[in-house]
Amino acid sequence: MTLKAIVIIGAGALLAACGSRPPEPIPSPPAISVYMCAAPAGMTEPERQPLRPLGNYTQDDVALYITDLHHWATRGWLKVARIREHADKCAQSADDEETE
Which residues in 40-57 are b (16+ Cβ under 10 Å) and which e? Predict the structure, then answer.
């Protein structure tokens, strides 16, 4: 190919690009709702774990420890459920305010 042919092809490509339309602008993303629904401090305070039996312990000590551990874990999951309810109520009230 000669230099003249390369220049003609390049000029044609440039002129063709001038005739094209720019792409349509990208639509903006939908609005994102941000909620400030922090759980009260009392809902998130850690609770002390049950003390493990030490030294020469009996099966009764182990049974009491496992029972205490079970109750401690159950209270923790109930706390998580209450925090979730609190956050859901807060988000729902924020949604209700937006629709009004």
Answer: eeeeeeeeeebeeeeeee
Segment 40-95, tens digit of pLDDT: 888 888 899 999 999 999 999 999 999 999 999 999 999 999 999 998 888 888 77
> In the Cβ-directed half-sphere of 52, how many Cα atoms lie within 13 Å?
2
What's the pTM?
0.55
Cβ proximity of 97 and 49 under 8 Å: no
CB of 34 closer than 8 Å to CB of 12: no
Question: Under DSSP, is residue 8 helix (H, G, I), strand (E, B) or coil?
Answer: helix
Residues 6+ apart with CB under 8 A from 62: 53
Cα distances (Å, whole numbers) of residue 15 to 7, 18, 19, 21: 12, 5, 7, 13
